[in-house]
Amino acid sequence: MKNTEHPRPKASSSEIDLVDLFAFFWQQKKFIATTSAIAGAIALGYVLIVPSIYQASSVLRPAENYELDALNRSEVYKLPPQEALLKVGAALDSYEMRLNFFLSHQDLFKPLEKDGMTLEQSFELFNRDSINLTQIGVKNPDALSPSVKLELTYPKSVKGVEIINQFIDYAINNQRAQISADLKTIINNRQKELREKIEAARLGYQSDKEAKIATLEESDELARANLKDELEALRLQLKAVRDARIQALDEAISIASNLGITRPTTPYAMGENGGAGTRVIRTEVTTQDTPLYFLGTQALQAERAVLLKRSSDDFTDKRVQEIDKQLKLLEVNRQVELLGKRSNEDVFLKNIEPLRAEIVRLGNLNTDMQNLVLVSIDRKAQPPISPLKPKKTLTVLMGLFLGGLLGLGISVVRYFNIRRREEAGQSS
To answer: For the chain, how far is it from start to end, CA to CA, in angstroms?
Structure first.
């Protein structure tokens, strides 16, 4: 290339002639264009060599209230929509959850495997650099539009969209299974508690029944003892009365024998001396008891003989018969007998029907949560239109721009070198 003659700067050394400077740039236009083209070519080579990195994302929002209505109406497990979103978000952010998904879906992560690295190390790199979770207003109950956003950056060789969608399904299914297991555990615990209350009611009833039977038997035993004591005292009293009667008869027999009274008579009859053949009808009115000896020795001795032969005085008093009747009735307590013959004692338990009804209700609850909608997938991950990086067009343009700037910079240096040499030549 021929050397062109450069104009001499007319300004002093402390001034810059912009017109002259731009004229110099115009003279260097091929050089500037060349540096810009070289830089652009380098940028183009970079974007062609560097692997493209893509990004896919999915957004989750709370499910509708009716989706969780059946679970919440069970009165066993309460799960508001925002809390369900929080549970799924916590699962997506869990290291253990991500590792389990990685180990169970190794076919999706084979392109990420590197020689000399274990599966855990490959996962560590993936978990640290590739996946990101953002929660907006999930922990704030007053948030208007809470959401969970899961982003995944991945090279072209990795099925990133499939990974993120399957991972979200995996986390949701895991939480469904966890809720189902929790629900079963809660139901079993509550049924166990209710059964223990029923068993406690049975034990209480059994204790009350035994106490009642013991009270009844004790009452009957006391009544029998009192009646036997009364019967024994009554028999002694009747025997004493009979002995007293025998003694009285002995005295009366002695007096009647001395008076020669063999047959029953009266005091008036003994004192009257009526004529023979005279018939007299007598009527005696007296308020005093006639002594026994007036009955005569025959009647008195006959009564005494009978009393001596008597083996029991029970028939002489009605109370003895009443006591015998009561003792006979006390031999068997029908209430105690019926209490002992009860075959199904549960029907006599009080306030346990609600407990049984609750056990049946809990047993009929559906614990299969496979169709439970925990969250609403507002946006599923879709294949990206362009890579996240590098931005090919932008990178090439930046290369051209920076190359142009470099050419301009070199041209400025050249301009000042030429100017300094010309000034040095003029001074000499």
So the answer is: 30
